[in-house]
Amino acid sequence: MPESPLALIVGANRGLGLGLARELLQRGFGVIATARDPDGAEELAALAAAHPGKLSILPLDLAIPADIDGFAGRLDARMLDVLFVNAGVAGPAHRSTMEATPEEVGALMFVNAVAPVRLARLLLDRVREGSGILAFMSSLMGSVEANTAGNHELYRASKAALNSLTRGLFATLGGRRITVLSMHPGWVRTDMGGAQAPLDIETSVRGLADVLAREAGSLRHGFIDYAGAEIPW
Ligand SMILES: NC(=O)c1ccc[n+]([C@@H]2O[C@H](COP(=O)([O-])OP(=O)(O)OC[C@H]3O[C@@H](n4cnc5c(N)ncnc54)[C@H](OP(=O)(O)O)[C@@H]3O)[C@@H](O)[C@H]2O)c1
């Protein structure tokens, strides 16, 4: 029997990350899911119980550099077909450059932009050559070109920074043959997206998983939404 493909999903205890874990399990993947607090990740634990031997849960807090830097040591030797860094935060409630403190901006930029790419750099050798995908949960709000509204300015800047750092990572892959994706999940009903969002989690993650399947082996850095549409940078 061929081995199941393996996905690592960072930030999988709720929202889109949890939905992605569920979707990829349904598609036959083994999944390594991370949570800041695995003991409190009840829905992940229930998912693990429903898929014996297919889902493991590891602790990881992207706000803690030592967590990121030590994470590779927690993995076994299996290669990753998908590494999906999904975790992200909305930033301070005031959302404004006029009110922001250095600490607020530092925390937002570190978790949304720097930490995902730092973690990915440390795990590059674990991503399968050829068909392996390194995906980051970006946002349409990270598009500089599509920003005609100007709202959520700090969050937008953090996702634009994520896209820029991701391009830098792609540009320095050296001889590694892997695909890198910056993904927009749509506007989705989660704690972050809010109740008025038009999309449910299932629709978004089904689309994201379809894009992953389609892009495997493309060996490019694309900015793509859950429906497969290219987004302007
Ligand atoms: N929902 C939307 O409409 C939408 C649109 C565009 C992009 N996105 C992006 O999609 C991703 C998931 O969003 P969501 O809507 O599912 O949000 P969510 O329901 O608020 O979930 C956020 C996830 O990120 C994790 N996380 C937050 N800070 C973390 C940290 N320091 N270390 C590790 N994990 C951390 C959370 O874990 P805890 O439970 O421990 O906090 C949770 O698992 C985010 O990157 C978001 O920016 C969402």
Say what the CATH topology is. Answer: Rossmann fold
Distance between the termini: 42 Å
CATH class: Alpha Beta
What is the string of helix and strand elements?
EHEHEHEHEHEHE
- Average pLDDT figure: 97
Provide the CATH architecture: 3-Layer(aba) Sandwich
The tally of domains stands at 1
Helix content: 25-40%
- How many helix segments? 6
What small ligands are held by the chains?
NADP nicotinamide-adenine-dinucleotide phosphate
CATH superfamily: NAD(P)-binding Rossmann-like Domain
Shape: globular
Oligomer: single chain
Assess the beta-strand content as a share of residues: 15-25%
Supply the helix-strand structural class. Answer: alpha/beta
Low-confidence stretches: none
Task: Please tally the β strands and state the result.
Answer: 7
Please summarize the sheet with the most strands.
7 strands, parallel
Strand order of the largest sheet: 3-2-1-4-5-6-7
Computed CA radius of gyration, to the nearest angstrom? 17 Å
Keywords:
233 residues, alpha/beta, Rossmann fold, seven-stranded parallel sheet, 6 helices, 7 strands, globular, binds NADP nicotinamide-adenine-dinucleotide phosphate
